[in-house]
Structures are given as C-alpha cells and as structure tokens.
Specification:
Chain lengths: 340, 386
Amino acid sequence: MEKPVQKIGLKHGSGGRAMRQLIEDVFLELASPVDGVGLSALDDGAAIRVGDQWLVITTDSHVVHPIVFPGGDIGRLSVSGTVNDLAMMGATEPLALTCAVILEEGFPRADLERIRDSLKATALEAGAPFVTGDTKVMGKGELDGIVLNTTGVALTRRVVTDAGLRPGDLLIVTGQVGDHGMAIMAKRHDLGLQGDLRSDVAPINGLIRAALAAGGDDVVAMKDPTRGGVSGSLHEMAAKGRVGIVLTEQAVPVRDEVRAACDMLGIDPLLVANEGKAVIGVRAASAQKVLAALRAHPLGRDAAVFAHAMAERPGAVILDTGLGRRLLSEPEGELLPRIC
Amino acid sequence: MAKDLTQELKFRDPAKARALAAAMQRNLDALGREVSVMHVCGSHEQAIARFGLRAVLPPQLKLIMGPGCPVCVTDGPEVDEAVALAQGGAHVCTYGDMLRLPGTSRSLADAQADGARVHVVYSVAQAVDVARAHPADQVVFMASGFETTAVATAAIALTDLPRNFSILSVHKYVPAAMEVVSRSKESNIEGFIAAGHAAIITGSAIFEPFAARTGSPVVVAGFEPLDILAAIVKLTELILERRPEVFNAYPRCVTRAGNLPAQKVLWRVFEPRAGKWRGIAEVPDGNLDLRPEFARLDARQRLGLSLDTSAVRDEAAAGLERECICGPIMMGLASPHDCALFGKACVPEAPVGACMVSSEGTCRIWHTYGGAPDLRQVEGRPAGQG
Ligand code: SF4
Ligand code: SF4
C-alpha cells in the first residue's frame, strides 16, 4: 500500500494519478449529496437540478509560466478552461463568468491590462459575460506573478458526464493533440525548435454545441484532455464507465512539429496537455454524424475517431500501435513542468 | 540530426508484422513446445514494450529481457568504490543514470547531497574537461557501459591526458554474461538476440565461439519493430533446425568482422577479467579492466589508499531493498510483475532497485509502457470500424 503523503509535491497538481489520489484523500470529505452531479463525481463541474433544467457550475484557478505564450496567454486560458469545463458537462451556453485575480506586488500594470483585454475578447468569443470579480494583492515572493480564478455557470436540459461510456461506443478527438503543452514547453525552456508550435487554447463550446446537435442523446461522455492529456481523460472515462478502452495510435491526429518536439524530449503526445480539444464518447450508430458536424466547424476540422470502448478489462486503456498492443500508462507525476 | 522518417516507416508496417508473427507461429507449431528466447539489450526492450510487440507473439514463445543494461548490472560494491572516492575528496564524473544507482547502502546522488563533488557527463571527453578545469584536484571518470562505450573510454586512454585524471572502469563485456545465462539450467534459454549497435563494433563473428560452445543460436538484430520480429522468426527457425549458428539480421549496419580499428583500441587498453554483475553473480571474463600498462590511469591503483569502501557500507541495506528481485529478473527467471514493490514502493521517481533506475532497465521500461499483461486476446479494432 502507498503511504499517505505528508507534504504536497508538484506532482499533486499535474492532473495524473497523484493528484486524483490527493483530492480523494483530502477533499472528498467536503462532498455532500446533491440532486445531480456533485463533488463526489469528480467530474469537470457540478450539475444541480433547477426545475426541468440543470444548473452547471465549475471553477478553476490558473497559473502558467510564461503568462504569454505562442497562441495565447493566461487570460485566454482561464476563460477557455472554464467555458470548456461547462461544455464538457453538456452546458454550451454560459450564463455568466466570475473572475478573481491575485497579484504579486510589483506586477506590471501593462501586463494586467493585456490580460484584461484577452479575458474580454475570449469571453466575447465564447458568448459568456463577466458579471463579478475580486482583486487581491500579495507581497513580493508570496506568489508567482498572477493567479486567475474563473467560475462559470450555465443552464442545460441534458447533462453529459464523463462516466457514460458503454461497450461498443466510439471515441472521437476533436483535433490534433499536444499543441498547448508543447508550445509552453518550447517557450519556457527555450528549446529553439523549428516550426510553429502554438497553443490550441480556445473556447470550444460552439464546437461542442454542434456535436450535441448532431448526436443528441447518443453523445454519452465528454472530457477535455487538459493536464494529463488524452491518456488522463481516457483513464478517467474507462474507470468511471467501467469499460476497457482500445486506442488506435495511428488514428490520433498529431502535428508534425509536435511529434518532432515530443520525440526530442522523449514525451508521449498522448500525455501532453491540450486547451482547445475534447474527447467525445458516442454510440457507434451516431459516430459518423457527430464526426461530420465536428469537421464542419473551424475548430474541429481534424477530428477523428480514435478509440472504442469494450466490456473486457474495465478501467484499462490499451494502445494499439499497429504492430502490437500494450497498456497505456496513466499519467502519474510531473511529466512536464506545470503548464496550466 | 534529422531522422529519415520514411526510412523508419518501412520497418513499421503492420501487414509485414502480421506476416512475421504468422511465420513465428509456424515454426513453433513445428516444434510443438514452448520456447524461451532472450534479448540482451535495453534498447530492444524499449522497442518491444513501446510497440507492444509481446501482444503479437505466439503464446508458446517467451521473450525475456536479460542483462541488457550496463547501469543495472553494475554491482553494489562497484558503486561503493565510486562513493568512497567522492567522499574522499575526488571529483567523480559519470553518466547520468549511474548517479541514482544504489551501492551497498549509498548512491553517488547521496554522496553529492552530502557535498561530494559528483558530475554528470555525456562523454568521457567532458570528464577530461573537468580534470583540466580543476588541475589541483583528483578527477575520476567512473566508466560504465558495454563494448560500445568501452571503445570510447579506450580511445581517450590513448591520448595525452591531464595528470590528475583517472578511470574507474566498471565496463562490462556482454558475451561473457550470455554464457552464464545460457549455462543456467533454471532459465532454460534456447536462443539469444544480440544488440545491433554493439555488434557494429564487435562484428557478428564475436558470437560464433559462444554459439558453438553452448549450442544456442544467436541472431544480431536492429531496433525497429520489424527488425526485432524478423530476428525472432530467424531464431525460432534456427532452434527448430537445431542449428546453433550466428545469423546477422541487421546487415544494413553490421558486418561479420565489425569495426577492426575500434576493436584494436578496445583490446589494447582493456582486458577481460572475472567480476561480479549485480544479480548474476561472478561472470568469468565479464569485466573490462585497464591493462597493467595503463596503471597510471587506473583509479583503483592510483587512488587505492582512499578506496576504503567500508565507510560507505556500514549501514545495513534497507528492508525494501531486500525485497527487490532485480537479480532473478536479469537472469530471466522473473518479471517485474513478480516483484511486490513494482509500481508501488518502487517507481522511477523513487527507485528501490537498479532495474527501476536506468531508462534501459526492465522495471523502468515496463513501468513507462504499462507492463506486459497478456493482451493477445484484445481486439485492435471494434467490429465494423474501417
Ligand atoms: S520493481 Fe523495483 S524493487 Fe522490484 S525488482 Fe524492480 S527494481 Fe527491484
Ligand atoms: S534492467 Fe535489470 S534486468 Fe534488465 S537488463 Fe538492466 S539489469 Fe538486467
């Protein structure tokens, strides 16, 4: 048996097994029963029944280094993260967002204004209005620049959890994986890589709305593969849905630049974070319809069916390399330095 | 350095892989019994695990990784020597994974944490640079690795070196260990896959006396998935036909004679001696030691006085370490799944045994790639998906 940790390490924030274990050990105490999806489900957000609808609510804090990176910045990241978490619950029309900012003494005003502009532009893009916020300042060295917390609420008639997979369902990824994590890595470590590594950070509620419109009730599970990457999402979906998942490696879209950077660093793109992608579980009969709807949207042009669920080996994620098969390991500790 | 991807993809063709698996199956059906074969290179295990090749092998074939990682087979007392030198005030330079390798009770990383001067280098030349940068101190290069890296060490030994530089050789010689494994009744290995990159230097002929003496065929293989599968097909064929021969399945890089100038350098500087390999016991001719005429470069002789390893061995090995089964794993008698600590108390961030330390170690590789559960029955594609 593993002994309970006494001190928090970086790996406890990395979106993998260590983080899930910590949350289960420490925070599940806070869970109380709700009519709907509560804390104990450990999903992307909560859903509370309100009349014949569901109020979906989610919150996220964002720290990232550097705060401006190719393809985005911390402002765009925090709006997208929250809007996408709502969308993963089936709630694609955010009612309102809040934003709490904690700043380190000495933080440049120009950077703050730039982040404000980015928050505003991204919220507009997502159709999500900011309605309230909070600002605090801490002393020099007490935090690293800036922490942004955003909370979002939305109403939906149907909740999609991450636990809905059944044997035979197909899984779709909405585009190339690994862009965000590798863009951050390249910038932070000054890798001097050739080619264009840009984060995919974007609000994808519009894309998900299109998928839900096409698939209806046959869209049965959704997850955004942020920290922990596609592997992390699949492991959670397999465990919660009590199915095995077989993933076809060659069907996963990965940009050449990202693959080259991953090869160089010995990192599996399936473990790298994304900020504008979703993994969607669909009943097989509707998979082509959903795929077509995704591909018709500018953010889903490279969507692909890449995995399927089966009754055997519940909880396991099996990678088919085309030459053989192995278990895909669950993201565990700090694969990458923290990126969101 | 840009890799030629199309060149590589030729060796990743699923249809060819299936054809090779079928050929293997035919050979095994003709044999009508189980067969165990061993490969002796961590890079082969990397490819086998990464591409999930064990899932397509016939069930009667056991593909076992042997002593294929020079970090793992470096013995505890050899680490103690390096730790003693470092604690005695010398700068110790070595390759990355060696740092965390446990000695009898301490690692170089432990010594470093206590203030000893330990440097990670990527080549022996960098270690010489350290010596030049610290002319007033003794600088020791802990030289680990098989034939390939030993050639690099040998080459530098023949150059003009600073007087404060010496070598602690823990170089190992692979064919000697194959002999020990092949003579072990318990492991029952009937054929070997030899490492292509080592054979580039030594040539495939180096295995001929071994095959003749032990009756075990040897196939030299490259590192792409199809290289490995093709080598296994050839090996099962040689076993079936009772031909204890050496076959070069990597002719695009390896010749029968190998790189003769490199061999000349290697044997001019080193000579094989009996030595202990971690987990395997004494291997006759298993260590490469500096020849007497290079005594001035030999840290054991030059700094012998400070080589009192008792100081680093006074603590008893921790309880966890006693449960580590690296030894039987290296002999092909157990797999990481047989170890109670695997993936629990022993993980790459906090390795208990040697095999979890090195990126070429069996336990580390299995941990990275999800181990080797039997996935032969799992369908790759759902019904009806194109
Ligand atoms: S899992 Fe760790 S303790 Fe067990 S055999 Fe491997 S290295 Fe040794
Ligand atoms: S990992 Fe362990 S078992 Fe494997 S080759 Fe290295 S020492 Fe031997």
